[in-house]
Design brief:
The complex is a heterotetramer, with one copy of chain A, two copies of chain B and one copy of chain C. By secondary structure, chain A is of the alpha/beta class. In chain A, 33% of the residues lie in helices and 26% in strands. In chain C, helix 2 runs parallel beside helix 3 (77-89). The chains are: A alpha/beta, B mainly alpha, C alpha/beta. The complex binds adenosine-5'-triphosphate (2 copies), beta-D-ribopyranose (RIP) and magnesium ion (2 copies).
Chain lengths: 499, 323, 295, 323
C-alpha cells in the first residue's frame, strides 16, 4: 500500500479539563477515500480539524509525508495542499458565491482583481457540480444545498492533495450527492487522498476504500471498508446491535386538529391545502427548493402568508410565531445554526428559550431549568460538557438539543423540518421512537424530510410538494419511494393520485 | 484553562475599581471620607440610572445616542410645566408630583418614539438616535430660548430635598440608583425579559424562531431606557433647578462607556447590570481623583480619563477573546 | 440705491451655555426689532457650534446671500480671521464683536468686551474683600483664549496681595461641571475663604455645592457676566454674592444696531467701542438689573 | 419581487440628495451658483476624506470615534512643527512639505495605535477609540495651553492656496477628495483588500479560516483611516490656520452618519464608497440650505438636521429588511 500523505499519530485533544480525543491514529493515503464514522460527539470533526491545521493537537503528532508537522496557520496547511469542507458552513453570508469561493486567494491582475477570470472559474467549478446558482448571488439568500455546493467548490478550487470533508452530504439530495461522489472519484483518480464522514452509511459503503470507526474519542476499528457492511458499521459505531430503525406505525388517527386550505406564501408556495389529525404523522416530501420549508414557516407565522387555517375547527389568523405557539402549533427549523440555537450561550438557556414561561413564576426557576436539562440530556442522549457553549457541541448533539428545545414547549401540533440532519444512526432510532411516542400521546406531527426513507418509515401519510404546490398525497403502502419520486419530479403514474 | 479566563472578566472591572480606590485613598485622605463618597455616588446616580437602561438596550443588540439630550429636553419640559402650574397649584407636593409625572411620561414617549422607529420600521439604531439626539438638543435650546430654564426659586427650595435629602444619611439619588440597580440586575438575570434581550442580541433570527416577541422586547428596552432617563431627570432637576442646552452633554457616551467597561458586549447578546455599576463608578472616580490631586495639568484630565478607560477594558481582555 | 434692500449677516456661536444663550437671545430680539424698523434691511442670523461651522456660515452669507454687512462674534479669533477677510474683500461692511480678529484693520467697527479687564476687576475685588489675604479656589471656563486672558488679568491683579490660589479647575462655564468641581474642592480643602467662579453660571453650581456641604468658611463667591439672578442677589445684599463683574451679552445688540444704522444712514459708526467690565456692587446694582432679559 | 428592493438601497440615498438639491434650488437661486457649489464641495472634503476611510473601518466591522480629535491633534502638531521650523527653513515649499509629512506621519502612527489595540489586543473598537478621542482632545488642549495654536501669518499666506487654490477653477480639497473617492471606490470593489474587509465584517471566523490575514487587514483599515485624517488635516490647516480644542468637534459622528446614510452597514460586511460621498453631501447640504433661507429659528436647525438624517435612511429601508 502507498505511504500515507497525512496522518494522525496518537493524537489527543482536550478542551479545558475535558479530553475529547484519546490517542487517535489515522492515515490518509493517496488515491484512496477514507471514511470516518462514529456517533455524534465521537470526535470526528475534531480529528479532521487537527488534520487540516485548524486546531493543534494537545499531544501526539500530525505527519505530513511522514514528517512531523505543526501548521502555523490554516494558510500553511492549505499551501501544502490540504483543504477542508466544514460540517458547519464556513461562508461569509454577505459576500457573493464568487467572492466566497475565492476568499483569501483572489486572482489579481496587477493590483486589481481579475473579476472575469474568477467569474469564469467559479462558473466552471459550479458546473462541474451541476449547481446552477448565479455566481453573483449573495450567499445569505442561497438554499442550504447551494451553500454546500459553494463550500465544495471552494475546496475544489485549491489544488488539493488531501481533501477533508465533514458531512458534506447532510444537506444534499441524493442527486446532488451523486454529483459530489462523481467529483470525489475523479479526485481519487488523480491521486488525491480523501477523508470523508457521513451518517448516511449507504454513502459510506458506496465510496469508501478505507474505514475508521470512532467511539467516545477513540478509534474502535480501522481497516479495509469492504470488510464491513452497513449493518456491521452501525453496530460497531453504536456499540450495540442495530435493528428496526423505525418504530411500528400507530393506531388509527383521531379527529382533525389542523385544516389548511389555499395557503399562499408569496414567492414560495401557492394554494396549499391539507388536513392533519390527532395522533397522526404527516410526512412532507419533495425536492429541495420545492417550498416545503417556506410553506410551514408561512403557516407558523414566520413569514408572510395568506389563506385559511383552522385549528381544532376554529378559524385562526397566525401572523407571528408566538401566536402559533399559543395555539399549540410549533415549528422546528431545519437550520440549527442560524435559526435554531444561540451558539454563544449554554445548553440551559437554549433549551428553555421557547418554553421560558413554564419556568417563570415572576422569576426564572433555574433549578427547574436544570432538571429539565437533565431530562433532555437523558432522553436524547445529548453528549458534551454542559459548561461549553452550544456552538462547541458536536453537530449532531446540537441537533438533538434543538429537538429537545422544541419538544419542551409541548406543542399539540408540531412541524419538524429535517429532524435528523447530522444525527448518528443510534440517536435517529431514539428520535423516531420519540416522535412516534408523541403521536401516540395524541399530538399531531408534520415531518418534513429530504430523506425518502425517513418519510416512508415514519409517516402515516405523505404529502409531496413540487414547485411550491401540493403535487399529491400518498397514504399507507401507496407511499413508496417510486411514487414519491414521480410526484416530486412531476412524472405522473398511470392512475392519478390527486388529493 | 477555562476557569481562570472566566474569572478575569468578572475580576477585571472590580480590580480596576479597587486600584482606583487605593490610588484615590493614597493620594488624598479625604477621598474615603463619608462626604466625598456620598458626593461621588450621588453624582454618579444620573448616568448610573441611565446606564442600567442602556445595558438592556445594548444587550438586545441596540444603542441609544439620544439619552443625554433627552434628559436635557425632559428637564426643560419639566421646569416649564412646573413653573406654569405654579400659580394654580402653588408650592407643595402636588406640583412636584406633576413634575415627576411629566418627566416619566415624556421619557416614556421619547423611548417609544426611538423604539418604534428601530423595532418596527427597522432603521439602524445609530441613525435613529443620532437623529433624535439632534432633535431633543434643539428643542431644549428652543424651549430655553437659547438660555437657561430655571425652576421658580420657592419651588426649587421645596423640591431640593429630592436631591440633597435622603434616609439615614443616604441621599435619595443613591437610594434610587441602588433600587434601579437591584431591580435591573434581577430583571437581567432572572426574568424572561432579560433572557429575551440576551437572545435577541445574540441572534434575533433564533429568537424569532423561538417565538420570542422580538420587536416588542426591543421596543421595551428603549421604553425602559426612556423611563429611566425620566427618573434620572427627576433627581437631576432639584440639584441646580435648571436646564440648558448644556445639560446632559455627552451623557450618552459616558453611559455607553460605563456599560462596556462593565463587561456587557457592544454587539449584544450578553449584559450584566452590576458590571455597569462598576463602570459608572470607575468613570466618576477618575474625575473625582483628578480633582482631588494636582498631579497633572487639568488640560490633560481627558487624556488620563481616556487611558484609564482603555486600561480598565484591557484588564478583562482575556475573556473577550475567550468568549 | 435708496429703495434697494440691503442684507446684514449676523454670525454668532451657538447657545451652548448661559452667557452665549443670552447673547443669542439679544441677537434674535435685535434682528426682529430692526427688521420692523428698517423695512429695506434683511437679516441673516446663523449660529455655529464650532469654528469650522462658523466659517461655513460666513462663506454661505457671502456666496449665496450677498450680504452687504457682516456682524460676527468669532468663535475663535484665529480661524475666523481669513474668512472674515474674504468677506471684507467681497465688499461687505465688517463688524466684529467681543473676540477680536488676529489681523488688525479688517473690521470697520469693533464692539469689544474687555477680558483682561474682566479678570483684573475680579482680582482687585477679591483682593479688596480679603484685606488680610486668604485662600481661594478658582473655576475656569472652557479652555479658550478668553479664559486665559481673564485668568491672567486676575492673577496680575492679586499679585503681592497675600491671596493664595489653592486650586484651579475647569468648570467649562457649565453649572453641572462646576458643581462637581466645587464639591471636590470642598472635600480637598478644609479651609477656603472665597471662590472666584469667574462666570455666573458656574457660580450657580458652586453655590449649590457649598450649600449642600453646609460649609461656613467660605465668605463669598464672585461670579461674572451679570446674569440677572446674580445681580438681583447683589442688589439684595446677599453676603455670599457681594458683587459681580459685567460682561454683557447684550453687546451683540449694540453691534447689530450700530451696523444697521451705518448701513441705512450716513452716520459715522466706524471705530472701536469697548464695553468695559464694571464691578457691580449693591450701590450700583440697580443700573445693571434687567428683569426681562433672559440672562 | 427582488429587484425593486435592491434598487431602493441604491436609489434611496440618491433620491434624498436630489430632493435636497431641488429644495435648495427652489429656495434660493444662488444655491446652484458656481461659488456656492464649490464652497459646499470644498468644505465637505474634510469629513468626506475621513468618511471614505471610515467606510473601510466600518465595513470590516470596526468603528472609530477618535477621528475628530485626531484631526485636531494632528493640526496642532503640524502647526507647532511648522512654526518652530520657520526660523531655519523660512517660508517656502520645504516647510510646507515638512508640515505635510508630519501630518501624514502622525496620522499613520495614530491609526496604528488604534489599530494595534483593536486588532492585536482584541479590545472593543468603541472603547479604544473613545479612549483615544479623549486623549487627543486633551493633548491638543494642552499643546495649545487651552487657547489656539496659530500658524505663523506669513507661512499661512503662503500655504493658503492649498485650500483656496486649485486647477481649472476647481479647488484642491475638491480634487483631493475626488481622488480619494475614486481610489477608495476601486479599492472597495476591485481589490482583495476591499473584499477582505467585507469578509471580515461579515464573519471574521470565516475570513480567518479562508486564510485572510484578519488582524492585518483590520489594522490596515485603521492605518488608512489615520492617514486619511492626516490628508484631511493637510487641507484643513490652510483654511483656518489654527487648531484649538474646538477643532474637529463631532466630526466622528458626522463621518459615521455619512457612511451609514450612504448604505454601508454599521455592523459590517458591506460597504460602498460612493454611498458615503452621497451621505457626506447630504449632510453638508442640509447646513448650507438652512443658511440660505430664513425658514426656521436657528435653535431648531439641529432638529431639522436630525429629522432629515432619519428620513434619508428611511428611504432605503426596504433593502435593510430584505438584506
Ligand atoms: N471548542 C470546543 N470546546 C469545547 N468542547 C469542544 C470543542 N469542540 C468540540 N468539543 C467537544 O468535543 C467532542 C467531539 O466533538 P466533534 O465535533 O469532534 O464530534 P463529531 O464526532 O464530529 O460529532 P457529530 O457527528 O455530531 O458531528 C464533543 O463532545 C464536543 O462537545
Ligand atoms: N431568500 C432566502 N433567504 C434565505 N434563505 C432562503 C431563501 N430562499 C430559500 N432559503 C432557504 O433555502 C432552503 C431551501 O428552500 P425551500 O424552502 O425552497 O426548499 P425546501 O422545499 O424547504 O427544501 P429543503 O428544506 O430540503 O431545503 C430553506 O432553508 C430556505 O429557508
Ligand atoms: O462665551 C463666553 C462667556 O461664557 C463668558 O462668560 O464670557 C465671554 C464669552 O465669550
Ligand atoms: Mg462533526
Ligand atoms: Mg426545507
Amino acid at each position: 500500500m502507498s505511504e500515507p500523505v497525512l496522518a494522525l499519530d496518537g493524537v489527543s485533544r482536550s478542551f479545558g479539563p475535558i479530553e475529547v480525543l484519546h490517542g487517535v491514529s489515522l492515515a490518509l493515503r493517496p488515491g484512496r477515500v477514507h471514511a470516518l464514522i462514529g456517533e455524534n460527539g465521537a470526535g470526528k470533526s475534531t480529528a479532521m480539524k487537527i488534520l487540516a491545521g485548524y486546531q493543534p493537537p494537545t499531544s501526539g503528532t500530525v505527519r505530513l509525508d511522514g514528517a512531523p508537522t505543526a501548521f502555523a496557520s490554516i494558510g500553511e496547511a492549505e499551501a501544502r495542499g490540504i483543504s477542508m469542507i466544514h460540517q458547519e458552513f464556513n461562508l461569509a453570508e454577505q459576500l457573493t458565491v464568487e467572492q466566497n469561493i475565492f476568499l483569501g486567494r483572489e486572482l489579481k491582475r496587477g493590483l486589481l482583481l481579475d473579476k472575469p477570470a474568477m467569474r469564469a472559474r467559479t462558473r466552471e467549478l459550479l458546473d462541474l457540480l451541476d449547481c446552477h446558482v448565479a455566481t453573483d448571488r449573495k450567499v445569505s439568500g442561497l438554499s442550504n444545498s447551494d451553500k454546500q455546493m459553494t463550500e465544495i467548490a471552494k475546496a475544489l478550487l485549491r489544488e488539493t492533495r488531501v481533501l477533508i470533508m465533514d458531512e458534506p452530504t447532510a444537506v444534499l439530495t441524493s442527486a446532488e450527492t451523486a454529483v459530489l461522489m462523481r467529483q470525489v472519484r475523479a479526485l481519487r483518480e488523480r491521486g488525491a487522498a480523501i477523508l470523508f464522514t457521513s451518517h448516511k452509511l449507504d454513502e459510506v459503503k458506496g465510496i469508501a476504500d478505507d474505514l475508521t470507526i470512532m467511539r467516545d474519542g477513540a478509534v474502535v476499528w480501522s481497516g479495509d471498508a469492504s470488510e464491513k457492511d452497513e449493518h456491521a458499521m452501525a453496530s460497531a459505531m453504536v456499540g450495540r446491535e442495530m435493528r428496526d430503525l423505525y418504530p411500528a406505525k400507530g393506531p388509527a388517527p383521531g379527529e382533525v386538529v389542523l385544516e389548511v386550505s389555499g395557503l399562499n406564501v408569496p414567492g414560495h408556495a401557492e394554494d396549499i391545502s391539507f388536513t392533519l389529525r390527532r395522533g397522526e404523522i404527516l410526512g412532507v416530501a419533495g425536492l429541495i427548493g420545492s417550498g416545503r420549508t417556506e410553506t410551514f414557516e408561512g403557516l407558523c407565522g414566520l413569514r408572510a402568508a395568506t389563506g385559511e387555517v383552522r385549528v381544532k375547527g376554529r378559524p385562526v389568523t397566525i401572523r407571528h410565531p408566538w401566536e402559533a405557539l399559543d395555539l399549540g402549533l410549533c415549528y422546528l427549523t431545519e437550520d440549527r445554526k442560524t435559526r435554531g440555537l444561540l451558539l454563544r450561550k449554554g445548553m440551559r438557556e437554549n433549551l428553555t428559550l421557547q418554553a421560558l414561561d413554564r419556568f417563570t413564576h415572576g422569576l426564572i426557576d433555574t433549578t427547574a431549568e436544570e432538571a429539565a436539562l437533565d431530562k433532555a440530556v437523558r432522553e436524547f442522549d445529548i453528549r458534551g460538557s454542559r459548561a461549553v457553549r452550544v456552538g462547541n457541541l458536536s453537530g449532531g448533539n446540537q441537533q438533538k438539543l434543538l429537538f429537545a428545545k422544541t419538544m419542551l414547549s409541548e406543542p399539540e401540533i408540531v412541524v419538524i423540518d429535517e429532524p435528523t440532519r447530522g444525527v448518528d444512526i443510534g440517536t435517529k432510532q431514539q428520535m423516531y421512537g420519540f416522535i412516534r411516542g408523541l403521536a401516540t400521546e395524541g399530538r399531531a406531527i408534520v415531518v418534513i424530510s429530504s430523506e425518502m426513507q425517513e418519510v416512508i418509515g415514519l409517516a402515516d401519510r405523505v404529502l409531496v410538494m413540487r414547485r411550491g404546490r401540493v403535487a399529491g398525497e400518498l397514504a399507507g403502502a401507496a407511499a413508496s419511494e417510486d411514487a414519491i419520486v414521480r410526484l416530486a419530479m412531476g412524472v405522473l403514474p398511470a392512475e392519478e393520485t390527486v388529493a | 484553562m477555562k476557569s481562570p479566563k472566566i474569572q478575569m472578566s468578572v475580576v477585571g472591572p472590580v480590580l480596576a475599581l479597587v486600584v482606583l480606590l487605593v490610588l484615590g485613598a493614597s493620594l488624598n485622605p479625604s477621598f474615603l471620607a463619608w462626604d466625598n463618597v456620598t458626593n461621588v455616588l450621588a453624582r454618579s446616580a444620573f448616568i448610573g440610572i441611565i446606564a442600567v437602561g442602556m445595558t438592556f438596550v445594548i444587550t438586545a443588540g441596540g444603542l441609544d445616542l439620544s439619552v443625554g439630550s433627552m434628559a436635557a429636553f425632559i428637564a426643560g419640559l419639566m421646569i416649564l410645566v412646573m413653573n406654569s402650574a405654579l400659580p394654580s397649584l402653588g408650592v407643595g407636593i402636588p406640583i412636584v408630583l406633576l413634575g415627576m409625572a411629566v418627566a416619566l411620561a415624556a421619557g416614556l414617549v421619547a423611548g417609544c418614539l426611538n423604539g418604534i422607529l428601530i423595532s418596527r420600521l427597522g432603521i439602524e439604531a445609530f441613525i435613529v438616535t443620532l437623529g433624535s439626539m439632534g432633535i431633543y438638543r434643539s428643542l431644549v435650546t428652543w424651549l430655553a430660548d437659547g438660555g437657561t430654564l430655571s425652576l421658580d426659586f420657592g419651588l426649587r427650595t421645596f423640591y431640593q430635598p429630592v436631591y440633597y435629602g435622603g434616609l439615614f444619611g443616604v441621599s435619595w439619588p443613591i437610594i434610587v440608583f441602588a433600587l434601579v440597580v437591584i431591580v435591573g440586575e434581577i430583571a437581567m438575570r432572572s426574568t424572561a425579559f432579560g433572557r429575551h434581550c440576551a437572545a435577541i442580541g445574540s441572534n434575533d433570527q433564533v429568537a424569532k424562531y423561538s417565538s420570542v416577541k422580538v420587536a416588542r422586547v426591543r421596543l421595551t428596552t428603549y421604553v425602559v431606557l426612556g423611563l429611566l432617563v425620566g427618573v434620572a431627570t427627576i433627581l437631576y432637576v432639584p440639584r441646580l433647578g435648571s436646564a440648558s442646552p448644556a445639560t446632559g452633554l455627552l451623557w450618552e457616551l459616558e453611559a455607553i462607556a460605563a456599560v462596556i467597561i462593565g463587561g456587557t458586549m457592544l454587539r449584544g447578546g450578553f449584559g450584566r447590570v452590576w458590571g455597569t455599576v462598576i463602570g459608572v463608578l470607575i468613570l466618576s472616580l477618575i474625575g473625582n481623583i483628578l480633582n482631588l490631586t494636582d498631579l497633572v495639568s487639568p488640560y490633560l484630565n481627558g487624556a488620563i480619563q481616556g487611558a484609564i478607560i482603555v486600561l480598565a477594558v484591557i484588564l478583562q481582555r482575556d475573556t473577550r477573546q475567550g468568549q | 440705491q435708496d429703495g434697494e434692500t440691503k442684507v446684514i449677516g449676523v454670525s454668532i456661536p451657538a447657545a451652548t451655555h448661559g452667557w452665549a444663550g443670552g447673547m443669542n437671545y439679544f441677537a434674535q430680539a435685535t434682528v426682529e426689532r430692526l427688521e420692523k424698523v428698517y423695512p429695506n434691511l434683511d437679516f441673516v442670523l446663523t449660529t455655529a457650534s464650532d469654528p469650522a461651522k462658523q466659517v461655513n456660515d460666513i462663506e454661505d452669507m457671502v456666496a449665496a446671500r450677498h450680504v452687504n454687512a457682516l456682524v460676527v462674534l468669532p468663535f475663535e479669533s484665529e480661524p475666523l480671521t481669513g474668512p472674515v477677510q474674504n468677506a471684507k474683500a467681497s465688499g461687505a461692511w465688517i463688524t466684529v464683536v467681543d473676540r477680536g480678529l488676529s489681523v488688525e484693520g479688517i473690521e470697520d467697527l469693533y464692539v469689544a468686551g474687555d477680558n483682561p479687564g474682566f479678570g483684573r476687576e475680579s482680582g482687585e475685588y477679591v483682593a479688596s474683600a480679603l484685606p488680610e489675604g486668604g485662600k481661594i479656589v478658582v473655576l475656569r471656563g472652557i479652555p479658550t483664549t478668553i479664559d486665559n486672558e481673564r485668568v491672567e488679568g486676575f492673577q496680575k491683579a492679586i499679585e503681592g496681595k497675600n491671596i493664595e490660589i489653592l486650586g484651579m479647575e475647569h468648570g467649562n462655564w457649565n453649572r453641572d461641571d462646576s458643581f462637581a468641581v466645587m464639591q471636590d474642592f470642598l472635600s480637598k480643602y478644609p479651609q477656603i475663604d472665597a471662590v472666584w467662579a469667574s462666570d455666573d453660571d458656574m457660580a450657580v453650581g458652586v453655590l449649590a455645592a457649598i450649600e449642600a456641604a453646609g460649609r461656613k468658611d467660605i465668605r463669598f463667591v464672585l461670579g461674572g457676566a451679570g446674569m440677572k439672578e446674580m445681580v438681583k442677589r447683589v442688589m439684595d445684599k446677599d453676603t455670599m454674592i457681594p458683587a459681580d463683574v459685567t460682561y454683557p451679552p447684550a453687546m451683540i445688540a449694540t453691534a447689530i444696531e450700530l451696523t444697521a444704522v451705518g448701513l441705512v444712514s450716513s452716520a459715522p459708526v466706524s471705530g472701536k467701542f469697548i464695553i468695559g467690565s464694571v464691578l457691580i456692587t449693591p450701590e450700583n446694582a440697580e443700573g445693571y438689573y434687567f428683569p426681562d432679559s433672559p440672562f
